[in-house]
What does this fold into?
Amino acid sequence: MPKKRIASFDVDQTLLDHATYRIPDSALKALDELRDDCYIVLSTGRDMDNYYSKQYRDAVQPDAVIHLNGTKITVGDELIYEHEMDKTLLKNIFEYADQAGYGLGVTIGDEDYYLHPEAVKEMDLARWGRCERRFKDPWVLLEKGVRTLAYVGREEGAMDMEKHFPELKFLMFAGRMGADVVEREASKAQGLLRLCQYYGLSAQDAVAFGDSMNDLEIVKAAAVGIAMGNGVPELKAAADYVTDHIREDGVLNACRHFQWFSGFQQPTDGETQKRENQIRGN
It folds into this structure.
């Protein structure tokens, strides 16, 4: 039976608590309560089909996933959209990052293709206390093609590459120890609009939760955009509502605040078409 709404959730530090590497029980409870009325969507910089993400995808059991900042979209097992990065651009930034010593690459399936894996390992140990990546030759990506990249390193490296490659955006992780690297036109917000079209809905029927800079566009695009209490200041400033920290039941408390378990409140600001036009660049 068709549902009336889309509820979109970022993964890292929105649903998945990095302190425990678990999704809080309160967040899972909120998702289960929303399912009767909502399509549950994961919207993330990860590829949720990768070996280190599947367990969280399976725990949530989403109706759809916006992977890799909108460059891959799946509904169940069906791939409904994908986009590959321009190969000339990929070659140019690889050559620059390699010379500069930056940890730049991507995880595909069960394997990690990164320039300067030693830099990636150093940051993984600093962030998580372990590095379990399966490093492979990153230069094969020039033939394989990729949808997006990831930079693992300090913020100044991301700023340097963005300065030299303005056709790319470097969306810093919440901890400022890396960034999603995507072409300017790609975003989670575009992915949300594609899913709205797929389900016969509009952005007025969408809610989006996030914590980081790669959530900025989707939080602005949805009728109700919610920033986690642990989110970055820029996202909080743009959100319609700031909920509690992930460790303080932020997802569940936001749902209770809006009384979504007894039916959604329709947005009243009349901004839906304006939001969609902004996302499409009109």
